[in-house]
Amino acid sequence: DNQMTQSPSSLSASVGDRVTITCRASQAISNYLNWYQQKTGNAPNLLIYGASSLQSGVPSRFSGSGSGTDFTLTISSLQPEDSASYYCQQSHTTPPTFGQGTKVEIK
Amino acid sequence: EVQLVQSGAEVKKPGESLKISCQGSGYSFSTYWIGWVRQMPGKGLEWMGVIYPGDSDTRYGPSFQGQVTISADKSISTAYLQWSSLKASDTAMYFCARPRGVGASIDPFDIWGQGTMVTVSS
């Protein structure tokens, strides 16, 4: 399996802060990298696919970048409703593995 | 509206069997793969497998091969996840989800069910 490693595991930031989460693949995956947001008690929600394409309906403060093995999810100006866990997922090879998640809290 | 609606929460004893369901609506059910994702309490997401309802082609993640069975009935737009003998370690939330692309088995999931909580306890 292609192991996906996220950092940090958790972070606390203030409203308006710029937040960055990184994801590293153990094997190169081109741009087959997706990001999900999961709020407590809810199903995950697709934010970014293909490393940098914004899913329809997702606010433009979310952006993704990277290629190969190293990827980044950025929230340009953190909002209260962004309090959630965030997961990366590779969709290059089966099984499409997820990272362990990053919990984002609002200070 | 495209949606997936899952069956309700289950409480079972170890050794019992179980089949949970996921009904799709608002799209051509037979032409999209549909998958299952496990989330154990307080833990992350795990891709279990997918099925193509059009011909029942099924792919499993290595950790789940032989542990669960994924099936589908395209006549009623419903996918299933079943266990023949539950263990306490099967306690988890199970989500069904649909990949973005038509005919794409490992595309990212853009439509999700609400989740089914399975609790296995003696």
Concise synopsis of the structure shown:
The complex is a heterodimer of chains A (107) and B (122). With 107 residues, chain A is mostly beta strands.
**Biggest interface, and residues per chain?**
A-B, 22 and 22 residues
Average of per-residue pLDDT values of chain B: 97
Shape of chain B: globular
The global form of chain A is globular
Q: How would a crystallographer describe the biggest sheet of chain B?
A: 7 strands, mixed
* Number of DSSP E strands of chain A: 10
Strand content of chain B: over 45%
Walk me through what this model shows.
The complex is a heterodimer of chains A (107) and B (122). Chain A is mostly beta strands and 107 residues long. Chain A is built from no helices and 10 strands. The model of chain A has no long low-confidence stretch (mean pLDDT 97). Chain B is mostly beta strands. Helix content of chain B is 0%, strand content 50%. Chain B has no helices and 11 strands. In chain B, the strands form 2 sheets. In chain B, strands 2, 4, 5, 6, 9, 10 and 11 form a 7-stranded mixed beta sheet that branches. Chain B has a 4-stranded antiparallel beta sheet with strand order 1-3-8-7, with no helix packed on it. In chain B, strand 7 and strand 8 form a beta hairpin. The N and C termini of chain B lie far apart (40 Å). The mean pLDDT of chain B is 97. Classes of the chains: A mainly beta (107), B mainly beta (122). Chains A and B meet through strand 4 and strand 5 of A and strand 5 and strand 10 of B.
